[in-house]
Amino acid sequence: MSSWKNLLLKIGDNCPEYGNSDDLKDHIETCFGVIRRELEHSFDDVPHYIINCAEQIPHKIPLYGTLVGLLNLENEDFVKKVVETTQRKFQDALDSGNCDRIRILMRFLTVMMCSKILQPGSLVVVFETLLSSAATTVDEDKGNPSWQARADFYVTCILSCLPWGGAELIEQVPEEIERVMAGLEAYLSIRRHTSDTGLSFFEEDDESGKGLVEK
């Protein structure tokens, strides 16, 4: 495996590639220096590999987002390719219903927003598009309420992005994110609430367990 690929794969790990150091700042600086030089030879390969790493090792997404943010200061064309490739993969995931990829790429987009790569408004557009789709799905007249699980998933994806970039969104686009939050509340108010009939067996029994014995 190429040295630059190894560095991307092992970033954040206590390993020989980084001199057995735990210092994340050193990891990012080391990886940044190598990737910056590698772009002269592997311009088309690096974006795909970074995104693949983000998909396969999602807990390292903040490190990859920071790295791409630094590269953005040196090579905007490269970062533009990263963004375009991520957006294309995200759309493909939506079209194919690949839930894991949708969730992870939304997190990556959020982290790139925090690294000043994406405009906050662009991320809000993604949120609002998914929220609109979710609301339409559960609408009794216009949608298909039987697909509520998919709508719930979209809403969950939006909510799961907030710990990664909510503070930045509130600071930079407070009105837009407030609109998203209002939309989330509206969705929760119209979605169908169903109880699992399988649990009714336990609900009818008292805490002593007598009902269970009798049945």
Automatic annotation (TrEMBL):
GO biological process, one term: mRNA export from nucleus
Entries under PANTHER family matching the protein: CAP BINDING PROTEIN, NUCLEAR CAP-BINDING PROTEIN SUBUNIT 1
Residue ranges of domain MIF4G in the record: 1-213
Domain of life: Eukaryota
TM helices/strands, residue ranges: none
Gene Ontology CC: nuclear cap binding complex; nucleus
GO molecular function, one term: RNA cap binding
Record-given protein name: MIF4G domain-containing protein
